[in-house]
Write a structure and sequence with these properties.
Blueprint (H helix, E strand, L loop, with lengths): L1 H15 L1 H22 L6 H28 L5 H26 L6 H27 L6 E3 L3 H17 L11 H13 L4 E3 L8 H21 L1 H42 L1
Antiparallel strand pairs: 1-2
Helix pairs in contact: 2-3, 2-4, 3-4, 3-6, 4-5, 4-6, 5-7, 6-9, 8-9
Length: 270
């Protein structure tokens, strides 16, 4: 009887390893569904289909946020899960948003639109490869990401598309150069050395809790007033701006710190 119970608990523990991977597979499905749906965005239903494709990528972001947390809660973290999560991100937040953008209207730019889509996708793959290498050589949670996280880049892109579609501008025209430039810009931000907050080391103090509640309240009001896409665009835009401002301040402080450190080094040498 005892042996049977132990065997049952062991089999249940092994089965728990499947749970976080199911969330990862769900993220892949959302990305795949988004691409297939965007490819059908022609005719009078083009706007609705593009909207549905972008929403699928947002659902992929939700599943991507949950798989790691589920793995930690069930204590089923594994190297297999880490690698599978990165491969899923390349599909759902690299290839899928780029192909959705292509069907949205980047195809109107011909070779330049194709190049912009490719730069975004390739940059996402490079960013994830760099993240995996850095994660394998460092212990413990990091306070910053190096480069814009690929889910944030994908969220910004699809939020812009949703906002445009909801405003009645279904497809891009060949003179809207901001769209391929945005794709290239997001790609360069992903492979840059700009540091973005992970918020993993943030302590849940009263001040932090008040800020979180305020941001949540503002995002909720924006979603109710203007639509969820504008709320997502505002949140991710603020996250991007925060990283750029912090990096600018860090670069401005660096020369000052070096000037302060030089006299000390000279005294030590003396």
């Amino acid at each position: 009887m005892l042996a049977r119970r132990l065997r049952h608990r062991f089999d249940l523990h092994k089965a728990m390893f499947i749970l976080p991977n199911l969330f990862t597979v769900s993220s892949i499905f959302c990305g795949f569904y988004g691409v297939v749906t965007a490819a059908s965005a022609v005719g009078p239903e083009a706007g609705a289909l593009l909207y549905r494709a972008c929403v699928a990528v947002i659902f992929a972001m939700v599943f991507d946020a949950l798989d790691g947390r589920v793995a930690r809660l069930t204590r089923t973290q594994s190297e297999f899960g880490v690698q599978m999560d990165s491969l899923a991100d390349v599909i759902s937040f690299g290839a899928a948003p780029a192909l959705i953008a292509w069907h949205w209207g980047l195809s109107a730019f011909g070779t330049w639109g194709l190049l912009a889509s490719f730069i975004y996708t390739a940059s996402g793959a490079i960013r994830l490869a760099r993240f995996n290498v850095m994660a394998a050589t460092h212990q413990g949670p990091s306070t910053h990401f190096i480069g814009l996280p690929i889910p944030a880049a994908a969220g910004l892109l699809v939020a812009v598309i949703i906002a445009r579609v909801r405003a009645g501008h279904l497809m891009l025209s060949g003179d809207e150069l901001w769209a391929p430039l945005m794709m290239v810009g997001l790609g360069l931000l992903m492979i840059s050395n700009i540091r973005f907050q992970t918020f993993k080391a943030t302590r849940m103090t009263r001040r932090a809790l008040a800020i979180i509640l305020a941001v949540f309240a503002v995002a909720t009001l924006a979603a109710l007033r203007f639509g969820a896409a504008y709320a997502i665009l505002g949140l991710l835009g603020a996250y991007l701006l925060l990283g750029l401002v912090e990096e600018s301040l860090r670069l401005l402080r660096a020369p000052v710190e070096e000037e302060i450190a030089d006299p000390e080094e000279e005294e030590l040498l003396d």
